[in-house]
């Protein structure tokens, strides 16, 4: 199957299912990476899923991409471009609807899988539009309430499930940031699993097999 010319550049791995619209996993990479990063383990994910790995809309020289700019200022420290992040949130929502229609996927069985900045966006889309997302795999990221829809807390999150994990010695995103997610998810009544692993800003083999098992159980 050829990749279709949609609003975000992407790579695909078709589903093994032939008798019905397949469930889909959208992969969202981290800052300065690209669509090939997470797609490298697409072949290891359950074959029933149609896999789509998207490229962030903003270029990061020399060869990477991002979902929004991260800037460092000596006076203010590290800060995120909220306007770009909200724009990417809206781009992803449109892309999910567009891709499900174009590839004839089950839009009632959508999983978002992100790493780092891709996790921030995955959380944002799922919590802001829980009617569009069934599962989230949130790797090495956190919830940024600045880019959630203002009324997200009033929405029905009862059908949403989330797997989240973080490295205990993550030098890029502090573990304390990730640990705030279970508190908020519990408050929203979301079924979630949160794990930590003795690694830095990355995904260990143990972490991979854990979220793969979770995906198999929640397909």
Q: In terms of topology, how is this protein built?
A:
Layout: E1 10-13, E2 24-28, H1 35-39, E3 50-54, E4 58-60, E5 64-66, E6 70-73, E7 77-80, H2 82-102, E8 110-115, H3 117-128, E9 135-139, E10 161-167, H4 175-187, E11 191-197, H5 205-217
Parallel strand pairs: 2-3, 2-8, 8-9, 9-10, 10-11
Antiparallel strand pairs: 1-3, 4-5, 6-7
Helix pairs in contact: 2-3
What is the gist of this entry?
This protein has 219 residues and is an alpha/beta fold.
Would you give an account of this structure?
This protein is of the alpha/beta class. The chain is built from 5 helices and 11 strands. Helix 4 links the parallel strand 10 and strand 11. The longest helix has 21 residues. The radius of gyration is 16 Å and the shape is globular. The model has no long low-confidence stretch (mean pLDDT 95).
Features:
single chain, about 220 residues, alpha/beta, 11 strands, about 30% helix, globular
Output the structural class. Answer: alpha/beta
Q: Within the largest sheet, what's the order of strands?
A: 1-3-2-8-9-10-11
Say how many strands there are. 11
Total of DSSP H or I helical runs spanning 4+ residues: 5
Low-confidence stretches: none
Distance N to C terminus: 23 Å
Rg, Cα atoms, Å: 16 Å
- Assess the beta-strand content as a share of residues: 15-25%
What percent of residues adopt helix (DSSP H or I)? 25-40%
- Biggest β-sheet: count, sense, barrel? 7 strands, mixed
